[in-house]
C-alpha cells in the first residue's frame, strides 16, 4: 500500500471522527460545539432559501402558465392570469391563485428540508457507526464506510419523508380544494359546459395525493445517492491535494529553499475548504439530475385527469412532456449545487 493510500484512509477516519464528534449521541445536544453547528447550518439553510425560493417560484410560474394553456379547466378558472398577477404584483378580481398555498408552504420547506436532511443523516450515521464498531467483520474500510453512508442515507430519507410528506399532502389538498371551489362558481361552470367538458371534484381531490408516495421515494433516493457520493469525492479530492502537497514538499527539500506554498495560510485553508466545496456542488448537481425523472412522474400523476366529454365519454388526459419537464434544468443546476454548499458549511463548522 502506498503512502498516499494510507493518508487517504487516515483522512476518511478523520472525517468519520469529526462527524461523530459534532453530534455525539451520548452527549447532550446543548453543548457549545453542537449549538454552533446547528446555528451555522440553520443560517446557511435560511440564506440558501433566498436563492432556491425565487427559483422555485419561477418554475411554478412557468408550469402554471403552461398548464393553463393545456388544461381548459384552468383556463376557465383564470389560473394563468392569476399566476401572472402573483409574480408581477398586479391583482385581478375575477381570477384565483391556486398556488398561493404552495408558495407559503415552500417558504418553510426550503429551510426545513435541507436542515432536517443533514441532521437526520448525521444522527443515523453516528448510530450506525456505534452499532457497527464492534460487530463489523469487513476488512475493507472503504466497503464499511460506503455501507454506512448508504444505510444512513436510507434512514435519513425515510425520516425526512415522514416529516415532509404531511406538509406535501397539506399543500396538495389545499390546492385541490381551491380549484374545486373555483370550479363551482357559476361563471366557470358555464365556460366548461360550453365545451361539454367536465371533471368530477372527487376525482380532482383524489388526484392530489397520487404523487405523495413518489415524493417519499424521491427523498430516500436523493439521500442514498448524495451522502455516499459527497464523502467519496471528498476523500478523492483530499487525496489529490495530499499528493500535490507531498510533491511540493519534496521539491522544496530538493531545492533547499525555505519558501513554499505549504507555508502560505491560504494554501492550508484551501486544502480543507475546496475539496468539501467541490464535492458538495458536484454531488448536489448529480443527485438532482438523478431524481429528475421522479419529479416529472409526480407532475404527470398529479395532473393526469379523468375527463368526461359529452360526445366521447370518459378518457384519461395527460400533460405533454414539454409541460411536465418545464423548469427541470433550473431545478437541477440551482437546487442541487445550493444544497451542496449548505452541506459544505455543515461539514466545515
From TrEMBL:
The record ties this protein, via PROSITE patterns, to: SOLCAR
Q: Does the keyword Transmembrane apply?
A: yes
- Report a single Gene Ontology molecular function: transmembrane transporter activity
For this record, an example GO cellular component is:
mitochondrial membrane
The Solcar repeats extend over 144-236
Domain of life the protein comes from: Eukaryota
- Which keywords are on file for this protein? Membrane, Mitochondrion, Repeat, Transmembrane, Transmembrane helix, Transport
Instruction: Indicate where this protein resides in the cell.
Output: Mitochondrion membrane
Q: Which residues cross the membrane?
A: 273-302, 323-348
Family matches, as Pfam families: Mito_carr (PF00153)
Q: What membrane topology is given?
A: Multi-pass membrane protein
Q: Which family does it belong to?
A: Belongs to the mitochondrial carrier (TC 2.A.29) family.
Name under which the protein is recorded: Mitochondrial carrier protein
Q: Which organism is it from?
A: Ditylum brightwellii
